From TrEMBL:
Name under which the protein is recorded: Cellulose synthase subunit D
Pfam families reported for this sequence: Cellsynth_D
Any Gene Ontology biological process: cellulose biosynthetic process
Domain of life: Bacteria
Organism: Hydrocarboniphaga daqingensis
Lineage, top ranks: Bacteria, Pseudomonadati, Pseudomonadota, Gammaproteobacteria, Nevskiales
InterPro entries from the UniProt entry: BcsD_bac (IPR022798), Cellsynth_D_sf (IPR038470)
Amino acid sequence: MSELEQGSLQYFHSRASFSLWLPLLRSMADELNAQMPAEDLRSFFFAIGGRIAAADPLPVGTSLADLERSANDFFSRYGWGWVKIRDLHAALEFVHACAPLRQAFGDASMSWAPALFEGIYAAWLKRIGASSQLELHQVGGLEGSVDVMRFRLAHPSYFV
């Protein structure tokens, strides 16, 4: 088992269940899937992520380590997984694991639900002064048994 998988399993075992809200969240996701195309749902969840970030802005730090620590403190409060931020030289990569999106919204939501985190990261980055010439995008699909999501902040030419 990889270090990522071991850390993720430890994380899941340490979290309380959110089963109180599960029937509402699953029913809402089913209705959203029935009413809207995935592209519109991504935009909707991106906007919701932006609102979440605006309501609870991260403290401004001076390093990527500060940003990662603040983001993980935020995600820990809600049981929304954890993030590792990596400098790829041409991009910043946000590797987010253990977000309970599949558990909350079901398998059919995995094409749009990650946009919630994309919206959170984009709003935080804008607030701390990321250049307007850079864009944040999810890259690839969900990975592994803990639904690892990857987001990158880079110049638009990076994504072509």
